[in-house]
Design a protein that fits this description.
272 residues; Structural Genomics Hypothetical 15.5 Kd Protein In mrcA-pckA Intergenic Region, Chain A; Alpha-Beta Plaits; 3 domains; 4-stranded antiparallel sheet; 24% strand
Length: 272
């Protein structure tokens, strides 16, 4: 009986207020160290993988605050100046998103008319601000790359790089063989002769479907090529971009690129 009373009294005691962490102390499991391994910093900057970064460090290709560093495991702070190839690196982690864009989404980061943008499909998945690499018009579907890597974006959008882009085109009528030959020899768009790398019937049994590969970055270039010859594009789908494909990527979905894919995009040579 006495034991029951003691337990009852104990249970009626007011709960002791939970103490908050003392000033200057961290909660268990958290670290106050803002430093980061140098190879991770380089990888986050989008230069290469961590393993490849170790090679750069060992070879004396990396400078920290103006001094060459060759010791693996070196840690740096976000405030440090890290240089490679005479360029200062950003410590923000680089994100590379491959999207299979659906119809009725515009390729922009913001729209004053409140139309749906490709960034709506990603939502708040990343803290970094991503930007589309190139453009797909509102009615065009298919592959679109988004990233915060400005150097790679510049490389992939520059005409000299000649990024491979393959489109599947559905027309309003059968495409004549003679017109296909005309397209292959080049069509003038804005006083520039656009010559595709390849153009052919995508489906021999349905000559309204054309596969066309080109590296021109002109606005609405595929639609304008066919409009010049009296055809109307009913559907336009980009099925290959810079060697990337839509495999296992349903319409309206996205995925992160692998390290191997990112390395391929960085190392791909310019078109001769």
């Amino acid at each position: 009986m006495k034991d029951r009373k003691n337990r009852s009294a104990k249970g009626n005691r007011p709960n002791k207020p939970r103490s908050s962490p003392r000033p200057g102390r961290l909660e268990k499991g958290k670290s106050s160290d803002p430093s980061i391994r140098l190879n991770k910093y380089i990888a986050n900057a989008g230069v290469c993988s961590r393993r490849e970064a170790d090679v750069l460090i060992k070879n004396g290709a990396i400078k920290v605050n103006g001094e060459i560093v060759t010791e693996l495991g070196t840690k740096v702070l976000p405030s440090d100046k890290i240089s490679y190839d005479n360029q200062t690196l950003s410590h923000e982690k680089k994100i590379y998103v491959l999207m299979n864009k659906p119809k009725d989404y515009i390729t922009t980061t913001d729209d004053p008319h409140n139309r749906k943008t490709v960034l709506n499909l990603i939502g708040n998945a990343f803290s970094q601000r991503l930007y589309p690499v190139g453009r797909l018009d509102r009615n065009t579907t298919g592959l679109l790359l988004l990233t915060n890597d400005g150097e790679l974006t510049k490389k992939l959008t520059h005409p000299s790089h000649g990024v491979r882009k393959l489109y599947h085109v559905h027309l309003d009528k059968v495409v004549k063989k003679a017109d296909l030959v005309k397209i292959a020899h080049g069509i003038d768009i804005d006083n520039i002769k656009v010559i595709p790398d390849q153009v052919e019937y995508a489906n021999p049994e349905n000559r309204r479907e054309i596969g066309i590969e080109l590296h021109s970055g002109q606005n609405r270039v595929v639609r304008r090529i066919f409009e010049k010859l009296g055809y109307k594009v009913q559907k336009l789908d980009r099925v290959v971009f810079a060697g990337l494909t839509k495999k296992d990527l349903p319409r309206g979905r996205w995925r992160l690129l692998s390290e191997r894919e990112v390395a391929y995009l960085r190392s791909a040579p310019a078109k001769p």
